[in-house]
């Protein structure tokens, strides 16, 4: 890295919470007096403080450190702990190119990468980006501190030794890429000729690194995720058709593709509009499980509307994924779907009805796509987690707010019961329904004579059937259905339904049919109305007049028998 030829000096303030604790960096400043003053202030809340003077020799790239101030309890010597065997320790520049290192780079340099609209893959292969990062000032210094401090706390190793090791490794990696760029190690590629470049690199010991540099140079022409993904697709198509012996090149190509798709802005850039999370997850589901989406859509046309076919570059990448060209991308999309489902973001902000519809469609398609039991378990767990949001007070209030009547509010809450999963969430949704049905407002609205009693009773009966089919706990379903039945009984009492029906000048068979409709829960809710209807049916069945009519008309008896079975009055 280029230097100015003189030493750079700054001061670092450290504290120990207890005598046995490790030193923890609190601040860094170029003002010596400020550093010492801060150390004095921190001593009141810690076991010890110290200030180190750090000097960077720009010519050698090495740090030298000296403690200029220390105060507090003596430091307790601790036995040095070894780093866990599972730790991935980078010891050479090549180690920075593995997936774990790239993920860490993405986290540590997240803001810088976003500002420059690049991915870790591009940074690791482009000399111009490395020089730009180096010129930014403190970015790399902060990265070194973020790497060294946790490692020092974990292992007990000296912080400054670790910082020197990390800085040396980063310097070597940067110098390597810059020098390789200057000696034109990375070839120029385009979709028409790049298969030949792949073949020339076949026996190169660093073929993945060199090809990565060529791809990064090719990507430098694109300004945003969409342009870069379209450019990479142009490379992927010819490679997928001539893959024999070139699998390694497809693996290299998949790295920037997966990183670009991992950014939140990539889908919006490809779609050409600001998609909400619901739309984004619909696209990801179509990419990850297009075959299952098509099968479910044949059964439920609403799914086809919510998760439409892909177009443009998205369709192109789906085709490559269908050929198993990008297994890591497929896994990443599936993981992101699960992560977003478990996250706090709304799928359709401000539109609870659409949110439930989208969630329902995603549940159907992703469950169908789960091939292994552990995958299905993960999907179920994710939807249970998402259902917690659906039964929250805020969501329920937004869902019922659009209901024009209390009956509509109850229907929306029953719909919620039908679409949430998980025993706890089902129970909470049932509590909302039971509370709404038991409210005086619901009873008052249902007894309002603005609509016919028959219509109101039929609506209550439909609510009952939906509740019974919503897979609620037996106790909750029974309580809700009982309350609906009681409201139905009040409506029937208001209009003297059963007595009025019995007095009507209608044929006995017609009266029996109407009564059976009330008794079997189709025309009125199960409860007081159905009980009264059953009692009247039993009386009518004992009358000689009706017996004679049914005996002379076997067809009428055959039509009535299913209704009697449904009412529990015949086998």
How would you describe what is shown here?
The chain has helices spanning 32-42, 99-108, 110-116, 120-125, 127-135, 139-155, 159-182, 194-200, 207-219, 225-241, 247-261, 264-271, 277-288, 290-299, 301-306, 312-322, 327-342, 352-369, 373-390, 393-401, 406-419, 423-437, 440-446, 453-468, 474-495, 497-503, 508-519, 528-541, 544-552, 554-566; strands at residues 7-16, 24-29, 48-57, 62-72. It is α+β, with helices and mostly antiparallel strands and 571 residues long. It has five domains: 7-72, no CATH class; 93-242, no CATH class; 275-381, no CATH class; 391-495; 500-566. A four-stranded antiparallel β-sheet has the order 2-1-3-4, sandwiched between helices. β1 (7-16) and β2 form a beta hairpin. α27 (508-519) packs antiparallel against α28 (528-541) and α27 (508-519) runs parallel beside α30. It is elongated. Mean pLDDT is 88; it is low at 1-6 and 79-88.
What is the topological layout?
Elements: E1 7-16, E2 24-29, H1 32-42, E3 48-57, E4 62-72, H2 99-108, H3 110-116, H4 120-125, H5 127-135, H6 139-155, H7 159-182, H8 194-200, H9 207-219, H10 225-241, H11 247-261, H12 264-271, H13 277-288, H14 290-299, H15 301-306, H16 312-322, H17 327-342, H18 352-369, H19 373-390, H20 393-401, H21 406-419, H22 423-437, H23 440-446, H24 453-468, H25 474-495, H26 497-503, H27 508-519, H28 528-541, H29 544-552, H30 554-566
Antiparallel strand pairs: 1-2, 1-3, 3-4
């Amino acid at each position: 890295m280029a230097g100015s030829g003189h030493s750079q000096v700054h001061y670092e303030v450290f504290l120990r919470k207890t005598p046995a604790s490790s030193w923890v960096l609190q601040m860094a400043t170029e003002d010596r007096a400020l550093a010492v003053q801060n150390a004095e202030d921190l001593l009141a809340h810690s076991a010890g403080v110290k200030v180190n003077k750090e000097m960077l020799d720009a010519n050698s790239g090495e740090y030298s450190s000296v403690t200029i101030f220390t105060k507090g309890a003596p430091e307790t010597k601790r036995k040095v702990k070894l780093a866990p065997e599972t730790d991935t320790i980078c010891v050479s520049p090549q180690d920075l190119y593995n997936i774990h290192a790239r993920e860490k780079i993405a986290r540590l340099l997240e803001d810088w990468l976003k500002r420059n609209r690049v991915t870790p893959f591009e940074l690791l292969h482009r000399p111009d980006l490395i020089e730009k990062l180096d010129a930014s000032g403190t970015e790399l210094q902060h990265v070194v501190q973020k790497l060294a401090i946790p490692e020092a706390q974990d292992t007990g190793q000296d912080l400054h030794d670790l910082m020197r090791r990390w800085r040396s490794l980063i310097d070597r990696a940067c110098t390597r890429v810059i020098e390789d760029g200057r000696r034109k190690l990375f070839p120029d590629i385009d979709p028409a000729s790049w298969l030949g470049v792949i073949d020339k690199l076949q026996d190169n010991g660093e073929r993945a690194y060199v090809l990565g540099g060529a791809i990064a140079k090719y990507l430098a022409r694109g300004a945003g995720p969409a342009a870069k993904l379209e450019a990479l697709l142009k490379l992927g198509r010819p490679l997928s058709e001539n893959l024999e012996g070139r699998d390694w090149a497809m693996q290299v190509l998949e790295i920037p593709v997966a990183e670009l798709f991992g950014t939140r802005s990539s889908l919006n850039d490809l779609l050409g509009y600001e998609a909400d999370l619901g739309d984004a997850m619909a696209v990801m589901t179509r990419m990850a499980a297009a075959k299952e989406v098509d099968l479910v859509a044949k059964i439920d046309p609403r799914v086809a509307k919510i998760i439409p076919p892909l177009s443009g570059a998205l369709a192109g990448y789906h085709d490559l994924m269908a050929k198993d060209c990008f297994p890591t991308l497929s896994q990443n999309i599936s993981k992101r779907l699960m992560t977003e489902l478990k996250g706090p973001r709304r799928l359709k902000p401000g539109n609870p009805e659409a949110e439930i519809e989208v969630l329902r469609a995603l549940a159907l398609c992703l469950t169908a796509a789960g091939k292994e039991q552990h995958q299905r378990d993960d999907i179920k767990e994710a939807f249970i987690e998402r259902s917690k949001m659906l039964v929250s007070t805020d969501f329920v209030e937004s869902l019922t707010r659009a209901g024009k009547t209390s009956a509509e509010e109850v229907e929306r809450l029953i719909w919620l019961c039908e679409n949430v999963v998980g025993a706890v969430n089902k129970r909470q949704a049932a509590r909302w329904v039971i509370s709404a049905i038991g409210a005086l407002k619901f009873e008052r609205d249902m007894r309002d004579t603005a609509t016919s009693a028959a219509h109101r009773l039929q609506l209550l009966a439909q609510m009952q059937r939906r509740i019974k089919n919503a897979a609620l706990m037996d106790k909750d379903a029974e309580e809700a259905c009982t309350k609906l039945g009681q409201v139905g009984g009040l409506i029937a009492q208001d209009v003297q339904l059963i007595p009025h029906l019995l007095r009507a000048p209608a044929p006995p068979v017609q009266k029996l049919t109407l009564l059976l409709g009330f008794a079997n829960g189709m025309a009125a809710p199960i409860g007081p109305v159905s009980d009264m209807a059953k009692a009247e049916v039993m009386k009518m069945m004992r009358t000689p007049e009706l017996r004679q009519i049914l005996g002379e008309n076997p067809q009428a008896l055959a039509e009535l028998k299913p209704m009697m079975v449904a009412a529990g009055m015949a086998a």
